[in-house]
Fold Glutamate-1-semialdehyde 2,1-aminomutase.
Amino acid sequence: MPLDTAASAELFERARAVTPGGVNSPVRAFNAVGGTPRFIRSAAGAWLTDHDGNEYVDLICSWGPMLLGHAHPEVLAAVQAAVARGTSYGTPTEPEVELAEEIVARTSVERVRFVSSGTEATMSAIRLARGFTGRDVVVKFAGCYHGHVDALLASAGSGLATFAVPGTPGVPASSTELTLVLPYNDRAAVEKVFAEHGDRIACLITEAAPGNMGVVPPEPGFNAFLAETCARHGALFVSDEVMTGFRASRQGQWGLDGAVEGWRPDLVTFGKVMGGGFPAAAFGGRADVMGHLAPEGPVYQAGTLSGNPIATTAGLATLRLATDEVYDHVGRAAEVVKTAAAEALAAAGVPHTVQSTGTMFSVFLTEGPVRDFEDASRTSAAGYAAFFHAMLERHVYLPPSAYETWFLSSAHDDRAVSTVLDALPHAARAAAAA
Ligand code: PMP
């Protein structure tokens, strides 16, 4: 018998009457997979509970932030104590200093500035890169998502090394005409645009390891090559770790490449895990570059709720609890799930490839390897929709889109993982039949 979703369906109808598409971020509407989006009433550990009382193992983890699982008692206690002291003062506070110190200690950045979303972080990093270098052109990769920043909602123009066109109505051509969009993992394309436009390029921005077209890891040495190419041309290398930061590893993606190979990005953006489930994000980097930011320098940037005491308290509590043991646990659980997913799909005869970086992974329903957005686009949307719904019926909540990372947490215990393992063969057969 299918799960009862009457309460979610009713809420969805009410939501659609007052909110475009019934949601406040498009992918939540299940547009890519069809069906009724589940309205979640509460969450604890690895589990979500919807308004009909159905429980699901959560493999989205709020799209990354919930590294410790939902409603972690120590995070809740820290937040409750902070709330009792008032919710926002618009002054500097101690938790901001402590969270900044923690981020500086764990990552490559020397100075950090807090904002409220990943979008704000990348938007501000680009403004700072332009202000610092006195140049205007920004290079990005197709399939890398950096939030809904006008200049970055850009699609490749016709042919390599031509300037981009708007990726959505509402973005003026003037906002993307200084953006160059290249295929990911393509060194020759990077060489070519730097050869042609090097003295105009303010920065190259990339996801430290793309997770927004599914997980497409940088080929060995690719990030080092990007950092070196930028340095050679006087451009800044901006590593977007909004998703990978404090998630792929203790030190993010940089812990897996830069820290090992001995290089640093000029600027880094963070979000998700560092906000502990609250709206907090950050950008940071070289002290001399960050010194160009107001009030120290001339590049303007500000925010009413930036560094909010509740959000920074939640982030600090989360990072302090995110020990090596946490990453070991999440990595092991991810390994079990991704291996079982690959086995189930192989047994059902479904073409697939599973790719990962650190504790993050995703499943493409196409033969691999997936090196860039063009490869990722070959994943079977119909196969994924069938797979997704078969998992959902068996109480596993996957991302409702084929191009997303699957996230686990330190709360994904044996019961949660075995619920996923039990569901996978059914879902693989559903994908095969789609
Ligand atoms: N950069 C990356 C790599 C992201 O994954 C995201 C969000 N998925 C963003 C930026 C934008 O963050 P936000 O949704 O908080 O604006």
Notes: The chain has a mean pLDDT of 97. Residues 42 and 337 are 24 Å apart (CA to CA). The chain has 14 helices and 15 strands. The chain has two domains: 6-68+323-433, 73-321.
